[in-house]
């Protein structure tokens, strides 16, 4: 079976500094992978490169989604192709309501895929159903995007975005950052509800606690810009006890 997401010998630089140094990763449809690593290992760089953020230069290697290279695609085309990134720090957009942002995003993706746009009434029913599962009320849908939201509300709102966009490949960049245990459980429930045989997920995290709620199939350790070890979910539990010291310095020059 061919991979849904395949990263081949990926080298990425920011300015003169190489951050990813030959990263290889393959995720099949239906799988949830987790990447863990110490600060500075390249975790956020990986998420930014996957999403197409400016300033991150691929100097070698490739990223394939359903066999198609993402390397030269802009972020909008990557979203149309089925990629979604949940940010570690979701952006605030004053003057744009949450509902307007969601409807505009969904219809932009639908247009890009040659599908009919959703009218206002149909979308309202659609998004309310999705929001209810994440405990987001109508008031939050009417407010400016993420403005005045708590950390937990911002993260739940991003999972709502993922839910309405229905990507084939979801990247969650330290989604647990800043969440209390109740918000973490709600976010994890929303993520877990989207697991299915057609969708892949990559969970990037520093701590094991998120993986108590989002159960990964495979865990990878990223250090020095490379994946230095891959294993079962028990690998995350080992890291919680021993830390990353044993893996720092294992990078192949």
From TrEMBL:
It holds the Pfam family ABC_tran. Gene3D superfamilies: P-loop containing nucleotide triphosphate hydrolases (3.40.50.300). Signal peptide: none annotated. CDD domains: ABC_FeS_Assembly. Keywords: ATP-binding, Nucleotide-binding. Residues 5-249 form the ABC transporter domain. This is FeS assembly ATPase SufC. It comes from alpha proteobacterium IMCC14465.
